[in-house]
């Protein structure tokens, strides 16, 4: 599948939907139409019964360089943020609302909005030569699209403030140390490694369980421990009666891979 005219290309194999930012001539810089095309592709993947995991990457040497000059000009001319959100057609935090896990294959540089897209992924694979930057402070901007909420939860308050206040670029080794990336690979191995990881999720993990776990983790960041434990016990009890749990038990007994149904 493809929406090449809007700068996004998609393909599905083995239960994994790969979404590629496909404007390498502008380092995959994103205007509002391309942003919407990406979120459209995420929503379509989440609704597709044959998709168990999503991988997001960039074509060429960049992951996503951020907003295009045209979009920046529009913002400078006084475009209202709420108007932009309405044009986007999706909530800005759409990736966190999905049931399907999202894996970022950060094949090259990511800055500003491009970094935000990587932050909204559940797991990040990063090329050893890539560099990441928030950039917002260097454009006189606030931390966009919830990045000031995300970063402290991913890398801690001090690291988040360092990245957001300075707007400096960090390389793969530093990103790995602070938890901004979970895996570092040579550039030509990043996408295959991310797809292999997503393939493992697609082959061996229950889609319903993954959706439930994502919801537990993200909502749990704002939930007191006692409430989170009580909810987990309730969810666990319900899970015992699900077809997925019964299938997993049968698969263990029969020494085979489980055959989980779509969500």
TrEMBL record:
CDD domains: crotonase-like. InterPro entries: ClpP/crotonase-like_dom_sf, Enoyl-CoA_hydra/iso. GO terms for molecular function: catalytic activity. This is Enoyl-CoA hydratase/carnithine racemase. It comes from Nocardiopsis aegyptia. The lineage of its organism: Bacteria, Bacillati, Actinomycetota, Actinomycetes, Streptosporangiales.
């Amino acid at each position: 599948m493809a929406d090449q005219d809007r700068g996004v290309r998609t393909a599905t194999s083995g239960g994994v939907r790969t979404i590629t930012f496909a404007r390498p001539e502008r380092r995959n810089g994103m205007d509002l139409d391309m942003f919407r095309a990406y979120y459209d592709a995420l929503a379509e993947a989440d609704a597709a019964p044959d998709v168990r995991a999503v991988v997001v990457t960039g074509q060429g040497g960049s992951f996503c360089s951020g907003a295009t000059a045209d979009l920046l000009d529009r913002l400078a001319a006084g475009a209202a943020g709420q108007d932009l959100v309405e044009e986007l057609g999706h909530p800005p935090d759409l990736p966190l609302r999905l049931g399907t896990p999202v894996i970022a294959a950060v094949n090259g540089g990511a800055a500003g909005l491009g970094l935000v897209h990587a932050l909204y992924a559940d797991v990040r694979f990063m090329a050893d030569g890539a560099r990441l930057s928030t950039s917002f402070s260097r454009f006189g901007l606030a931390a966009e699209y919830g990045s000031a909420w995300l970063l402290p939860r991913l890398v801690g308050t001090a690291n988040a403030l360092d990245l957001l206040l300075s707007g400096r670029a960090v390389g793969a080794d530093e990103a790995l140390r602070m938890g901004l990336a979970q895996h570092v690979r040579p550039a030509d191995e990043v996408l295959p490694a991310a797809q292999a990881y997503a393939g493992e999720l697609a082959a061996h993990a229950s889609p319903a369980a993954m959706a439930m776990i994502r919801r537990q983790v993200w909502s749990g960041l704002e939930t007191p421990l006692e409430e989170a434990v009580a909810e987990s016990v309730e969810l666990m009890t319900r899970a015992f009666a699900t077809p997925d749990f019964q299938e997993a038990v049968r698969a263990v007994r029969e020494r085979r891979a489980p055959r989980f149904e779509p969500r």
